[in-house]
Amino acid sequence: MGTRGIAAFGLLAAGPTPGIANLLLVLLAGALAVIGAAGWWVSGHPEDIRSFLYKLRHDPRLQAFGDRHRAALGFLLRRLRPEGAAGVFLTAGLVALAASAIAFGTTSSLDSTCPS
Fold it and tell me: What is the gyration radius of the CA atoms in the chain, in angstroms?
């Protein structure tokens, strides 16, 4: 990794500057405003949404995709039903465990190379 990578890790460990934190807050507020505006528009145009979903459901490309990947889509649908909730939690837990093992394994290797 070298000294450049160790220096970058030190910058990340110091935390964001106030300008970066403010920028992130503005981006978060903007994203929430866009989500709220989209929800407001959807609630006022139910017929447009129904017609869009009908067209989407009957699109030949989407039907071909569904036919081609029927087994994988069936697996996902079974996991998303209330009866398959345990499978969702198990999968999410395994993904979180793997991600944390990768993240903490990377930081511990950085700590071991960093001079004290």
Answer: 23
Residue from 65, 63, 42 nearest 52 by CA: 42
Q: Percent helix, strand, coil in the chain (nearest 5)?
A: 90, 0, 10
pTM of the entire predicted model: 0.45
DSSP 8-state code for residue 116: -
Residues 76-111: pLDDT tens digits? 888 777 777 787 788 888 899 998 888 887 655 555
* Residue 113 near residue 5 (C-beta atoms within 8 A): no
CA distances in angstroms from 67 to 4, 52, 55, 73, 81, listed in the order given:
50, 21, 17, 9, 21
Q: How far apart are CA 106 and CA 100, in angstroms?
A: 10
- The pair of structure tokens assigned to 44 is 């006022």
